[in-house]
C-alpha cells in the first residue's frame, strides 16, 4: 500500500493516544539496547531544541537526557547551551559576558566535556555533533577550544548557522582537529552570504573537503529548493539532515506530514542507498502537547516511513 506524507501523519496521530513512555533507563539497561534509534537502516537522533518547553541550559541537562531516553532516541546534536555556563547575569554587560565566555572556553580542559559525554553515554546516547554559532567575534584560539571541547564530547563535527564568509575562516579548523564542520541552511534568499540554496551549499562545500552539509529540510523546502535532488547529487557531502516539515514559499512550519517537505522520500533515500546520513528530528510548529509527546509523534511518523 502506497501512503502519502499526510496518510503517515494520520496514522501517527491516531496512535498518539496509546503511546507508552518508559521510565528512564540506567546505564546497564542502556547497554542492553545498543543503537536504540537505528531503525530500518537509518540512524535517528534529535536536535533537542524540539523540547520547546524545556529551557536550554546546563541545569536542565539531566532532564534532557531523561526525555531522550523516554523517547528512545540514542543520538543527539548537542547545543552548546546545554554544555557551557551562562555569564549574562543581571548587572553584567554584554561585553563582560562575552569576555567571560571566551575565558571559560580557553581555560576549560577536556575532563569537563568528558564527564558530560559520560552522562549521555550512560543513558545510551551518542553525541554526534556539537551545535554552536561561530562568528567574527571568536578568536582563533577560541575556535580551537570549541573544536577541542566538541571532540572531548565524542562529537564527530561542529555545526552551526553561519555564512560563506565565516566558512572561509573556519576552513583550517576541522582537519586540524580530525572533525568536520557542518554548514546549516536557512531560507533567506536575499542574503548572498547565507546558505539557502543548492548553489550556496556548493560554494560552501567547495571551500574545504572537511565541510559537510547539515541539510535542514524545513528551511530548504520553504526556500523552494529540492531536498531529494540535492541529496541525490550531494549525499557524499551530507553529514545529517534536520528533519522537519514546512510549507513552500517561505510558509509556516507544520506537524510532520502536513507540510511540503519530503520527509518520507528523504528517509527512504537514506535507507535504500545505505547512506551514512544521520536523521535528526527538529520541529518548530506549535503544540499543546508536552515536548516528549510531540517528539514521539514525529519519531513514530518517521519510523513508519522506514518500516
What's the topology here?
Elements (H helix, E strand, L loop, with lengths): L4 H10 L12 H5 L6 E2 L2 E5 L14 H10 L4 E5 L14 H14 L2 H13 L3 E6 L8 H13 L4 E4 L3 H7 L2 H4 L3 E5 L13 H8 L5 E6 H6 L4 H8 L3 E6 L1 E2 L6 E2 L8 H11 L4 E4 L9 H16 L1
The helix content, as a percent range, equals 40-55%
Strand content: 15-25%
Low-confidence segments, given as residue ranges, are 1-34
What is the count of structural domains?
Answer: 1
CATH architecture: Alpha-Beta Barrel
> What is the H/E order?
HHEEHEHHEHEHHEHEHHEEEHEH
Work out the number of β strands: 11
From the N-terminal CA to the C-terminal CA, the straight-line distance is 13 Å
Walk me through this protein's architecture.
This protein is an alpha/beta fold and 307 residues long. The protein has one domain: Alpha-Beta Barrel (TIM Barrel). It contains 13 helices and eleven strands. Helix 4 crosses helix 6. The longest helix is centred in the C-terminal third of the chain and has 16 residues, at 291-306. It starts with a helix and ends with a helix.
From the structure above, extract its key features.
11 strands, alpha/beta, TIM Barrel, 307 residues, two-stranded antiparallel sheet
How would you sum up this structure in a few lines?
By secondary structure, the chain is an alpha/beta fold. It has helices spanning 5-14, 27-31, 61-70, 94-107, 110-122, 140-152, 164-170, 173-176, 198-205, 217-222, 227-234, 263-273, 291-306, and strands at residues 38-39, 42-46, 75-79, 126-131, 157-160, 180-184, 211-216, 238-243, 245-246, 253-254, 278-281.
